[in-house]
Amino acid sequence: MTTDHSTTAAPSPFDHRAAARDSLRGLAVGDAFGAQFFVPDNLPALREHRLPPAPWPWTDDTEMACSVFAVLRRQGAVDQWDLVQSFAQRHDFDRGYGPAMNRLLRLVRQGQPWGTLANGLFEGQGSWGNGAAMRVAPLGAWFAVDLEEAAWQAARSAEVTHTHPEAGAGAVAVALAAACAARSRGQRLSRHELLRPVLTLTPPGQVRDGVELALELLDQPHVQLAAHQLGNGSRVSAVDTVPFTLWCAATYLDDYQGALRATASAGGDVDTTCAIVGGIVAARVGTDGIPAHWNEAAEPLPPWVEPDRLGSDLRRQDFPTALPFQRPEPIPVPTTVWTAGQWQRVRQGIAATDMDSRWDAYLEGDRLFLHRSWTGMCIFEVAVEASAGEARPVQAWVESDPERYGRGSDETERDRLGTLLRILFGDRPAPPAD
Question: Based on the domain organization, do 353 and 248 belong to the same domain?
């Protein structure tokens, strides 16, 4: 039975790229602001609610979040290999990475397998730090149309560096909060309405217990009491970071400046707690909700992420070497159902980045075309139908010219197409109907 999240339904049309971009900028400004609390000369001004002189550099929180955003813009979903390679190639030791992450990313650059490295951290327990949570808010905003998809993609984004279940749960909780914030743009949203879906979809464990306590504490306004009960990130774990940041974001959901000042007043891992809160709140209020002088003081995002170039869905003109069918023949339709988040990826399309990718895909009207990337030949065409938050194939054709494609039986091609659709657009099972 699916969960009813109608109180935070995404407005239509919803620009997921812009929401993710806004969340990324809010995260970066929060990170840069929080980092100023580690500069001794800045502390007198900060304690008096005066801002330190610009510029405010950001830290590893932002650098890794930029990779998350860039991969989503390229792939439409979390490609784990692409993500960890981006982390490794963009890794700047001086941004404040922890020792374990410095070593892991250095070894990834040298060609060692990321899965083995991540699983081996901390005597095989995996990291349960807050690093997966600190970078994930833009992902939540990206998948705001589908909370279950946001949770699943957040867990995948965590696994490349943080394999402990609590670290994964922390990333899921933050992504869900950012998704709820983004999908509530222009609508009334209470503090409790922000966190209830988070509590429902976060995996069981200490992080989820902390989210439940944060929900109970929303009726009291005292930051210090919330930090005392929930933690403030001083142990740099997901458990003592995420619940407190969700309390701050929910309490100050429409007040970016107030949210960050409250978060920072609790001390602890201030750059990370402020990055998380800034990413969630900006997913709702947008970049216009960030004070202009804060935005100007914070270091710009790196040129390689190009946040103002949001991109667009791929169409036929983006594939100049694509060749049309020579002899299409109908085949049975695979029993595929795309959730709202998967359908978002179908609409975005896929452009192969290397020979291993093998397939280009794009949507034209209600037709999905699948071309082999190295020949440009169209192999499958699929008529799709979308309604009520999901979509599905309703007709399908396969190239049947033997000089272009070695066509199998109707059943073989149906199964081949179904497998291909799952590989390209996600294999998370659609939730059962009520």
Answer: no
